[in-house]
Amino acid sequence: MNPQQNSRPYSNSERKQKIVVIGNGMAGARAAEEILSRQRDTVEVVIFGDEPYGNYNRILLSNVLTGSQDAKSIFLNPLSWYVENDVTLHAGVRVTAIDRENRRVCGTNGVSETYDTLLFATGSRPFVPPVEGVDKGGVFVFRTIDDCAHIADWAKNCETAVVLGGGLLGLEAARGLLTHGVDVTVLEAAPYLMPQQLDVEGGKILAQTMEAMGVRVLTSAKSVKVVGSSDVEGVLLADGTTLQCDMLVISCGIRANLELARESGLQTERGILVDDQMRTADPNVFAVGECVQHRGATYGLVAPLYEQARVVADVITGVNPNAGYHGSRLATKLKVMGVELASMGRMADAQQGDEIVTYSEPGHGVYKKIIVRGDKIVAGCLLGETDTASALMSLYEKNDDCPVRRADMLFGKASQAGGDDILTLADDALLCSCNQVTKAKVIEVIGQGKTSVLSIGGCTKAGTGCGGCRGLVQQCIEAFAGNVAPDPSANWYVPGVPMSKPELVAAIQAKGLKSVSAVYQALAGGKDDPASKPGLASLLKSLWHDEYIDERDSRYINDRVHANIQKDATFSVIPRMFGGITSADELRRIADVADKYNVPMVKVTGGQRIDLLGVKKEDLPAIWNELGMPSGHAYTKAFRTCKTCVGTEFCRYGVGDSTTLGVKFEKRFQGVEFPHKLKMAVSGCPRNCAEATVKDIGVVAIETGWEIVIGGAAGSRVRAADLLARVGTHDEAIRIVGRFMQYYRENAKYMERTAAFVERLGIEPIRDVIVNDTEGIGERLDREIQAAVDAYIDPWSEANEPVHPKQFNALIPLEPVLATSKR
Amino acid sequence: MGAPTLFTHTNPTTTTPFLSQPIEVCVGSLHNIPLGEGRAYRVGSETIAVFRQRNGKVFAIQNECPHRGGPLSEGILGAGSVICPFHAWKVNVETGECVSDPCTLRTYPVRLDGESIYLKVEA
């Protein structure tokens, strides 16, 4: 930490590249992380931060104010992170001067550092309007952890508060103050709330909703003076009225911190001017984050900041000197005081001649408006009901054409199967076609106290086939279970152990339970419920890895014999064909096996491989040996196959090498287990011949690289996958895909496909974790999936080493010696 | 595809045991059945699933699931029940009662002599 050690002159080429970052906020610290992940050994990173802490997630500050999150829990990089990564952090030191000629930065307390590369990440600060009296006691801004603490502290002795500014942050501050038992009034100078995201009507509807929650809203309210002696006592408005209050929180937007850049001679307007490489006019000086102006735009949301950090790290470390940031189309999903809001672009950008699609339902706080220009979405907002948000935001971000039937943008599938439908459905109508369960039967068991989809499935089988009717069963519960006592088993992870997943995991870990039978002994009084066995086995394996004690009786038959049981109790055998590519030699062996073992059907599958159907259990080991190909895992909850199209290898339209990437995916992830099966596809161009957009994970080549999409499905329901990320290279695609896989492994429920998983969590939160690494778990996820990859063993090797002598016997012949003895 | 020989016997609810004599048949060693699993045995014209539960109890029941003929011996066993591998019907292996349907499967008394399993069947 001694600055003197670092003040050697810049000349020795063997010396590490020294990068000095000014600003330890979300952008600065993220840039440092990105740099270290690329070039740990040849760079030295020094960070100045004027808050005396590590780096925290500012987005979550409103949760700290409401008390729903502890201040400690929002730290992204605690001080120990800097030590572990050899990053010198000058915490609480403000940079006072920069000598660009000698490449030196000077800070308070006499700290001084030379640099090879300088990175501005000075961020922004709250804008305080020039109103008389804002220096009085009890007037706060809302930007830092300390601000939160001061506001909460002052609120203890307050009855009334005014929030100046009806934007997102102001409303969050109002929510925070409500939880401290204070009467809150929000003042907005514009004629409506959230003028950045909404228009007049939407803003009015939001105001109604806010008022219903107990926040008073005054719009078109211009404050001219803060009144009071030493502490604030009220706010004088332009119309002459005075609003009494004991505290005032100012939330009037942000302004970039530019003084230091200006003083050191860098060009600034609303932000520090940078090119697509985030470089200022000085080739050794870069800038990222809220302090930046790029192509005329400034950004205050986290996603663009993180993208800028990746670009600047590529450029500074030389990993990709041509990396470029090309600006962001801003689309976000927010929760304002618990009200859902999705926003794209700015409503104010509407022009004459634009097509306006709106729906308004003020009584329920719902307002939707999309501005369309030439079939493209220019801007939009969904307030109060955001079921189409993911699809819309994807259209907006990709600048794709919006649907011809414009109403599809506003109303999701939910409205077609709304709450009323279940009531009009006849009693003898089938809810579950797979298991022939009628509405009347479901209502009957609801009356017996079964009030969860799981428990209803347990006694009627409804929803246990394709699962497509579970939404209807849920609606039935909502419509008919009003007076029925809730079923405590609804939250159990498996029906046979009375615990939710977190409780169960805690108990398993506390008691060191490593086998399914041990769990039953310790947690279920020794009763080994058969229906719960596979779920427990899956959980235990994910918790204990190679320490897990595998009891084969907990497996479904398919997983005992590594083949898929068929309707006549024969099995199907699908060997792996990486990326759907085979050879004459493999085909010859398959043909020989089919002949020798009288395989009744040889079929090409939808996953681009070959299925041998009607195989006897006893023949499985010999067939595997003679095929000489690894298992395709077509029988289990694991990575299945990666379908590909031929891409640039042969196709005239191909823009990416899809076959090579597909083979890489399949070689890497074969055998990795998941909460449910997982299918992939790689398409070599957006024509998407491999149908990647209806796979659990799909990858589609575009001119600039690859698009990774997740959560697609084409089974009992069809769902288009959501865009997770765009990347440049195969390696990046493999890293992002692996990271999502591990996240899904850890966070999905047992038997939850990615489509349901992505819908349950939302694509944006997933993208934040996987792509932007907002939780700081990215590297751990990478390590865990690598461990799963490394643990791969071809299950068909059990052909020669069966776990039990009778593993592959269906029928055991009677032993003649012992045969019959009459009694 | 050849006829599935495992499931050719008659519906158990219609058999008439009046003329038959119960005899005891040894189906072999307990260790032929992995712990906690089941295996099928052909005794005369019947296919019988024999289960070796983890708590040491051994059960014998008709192998054919009354729903769609799934081989119960390939199912998941526990707490005195087996779950059919075809469509997850649950059958009580001790009583033969079917959990989600009012039918009863044929069960066979079991006797263990050392490691040998004896089943009592109609001759």
Task: Write structural notes for this entry.
The complex is a heterodimer of chains A (823) and B (123). Chain A is built from 25 helices and 40 strands. With 823 residues, chain A is an alpha/beta fold. Chain A folds into five domains: 3-124 and 256-317, FAD/NAD(P)-binding domain (3-Layer(bba) Sandwich); 139-252, FAD/NAD(P)-binding domain; 331-415, Enolase-like, domain 1 (2-Layer Sandwich); 501-555, no CATH class; 641-792, Sulfite Reductase Hemoprotein, domain 1. In chain A, the strands form twelve sheets. A five-stranded parallel sheet of chain A has the order 5-2-1-9-21. A five-stranded parallel sheet of chain A has the order 11-18-12-13-14. The longest helix of chain A has 18 residues, at 730-747. The radius of gyration of chain A is 31 Å and the shape is globular. Mean pLDDT of chain A is 88; it is low at 1-12, 414-420 and 817-823. With 123 residues, chain B is an all-beta fold. Chain B has a domain at 40-123: Rieske [2Fe-2S] iron-sulphur domain (Rieske Iron-sulfur Protein, 3-layer Sandwich). Chain B is globular, with a radius of gyration of 14 Å. Chains A and B meet through loops of A and β1, β2, β5 and β6 of B.
CATH architecture of the domain at 40-123 in chain B: 3-layer Sandwich
Quote the distance from N terminus to C terminus of chain B.
Answer: 32 Å
Helicity of chain A, as a percent range:
25-40%
The CATH class of the largest domain in chain A turns out to be Alpha Beta
The CATH topology of the largest domain in chain A corresponds to FAD/NAD(P)-binding domain
CATH-defined topology of the domain at 40-123 in chain B: Rieske Iron-sulfur Protein
CATH class of the domain at 40-123 in chain B: Mainly Beta
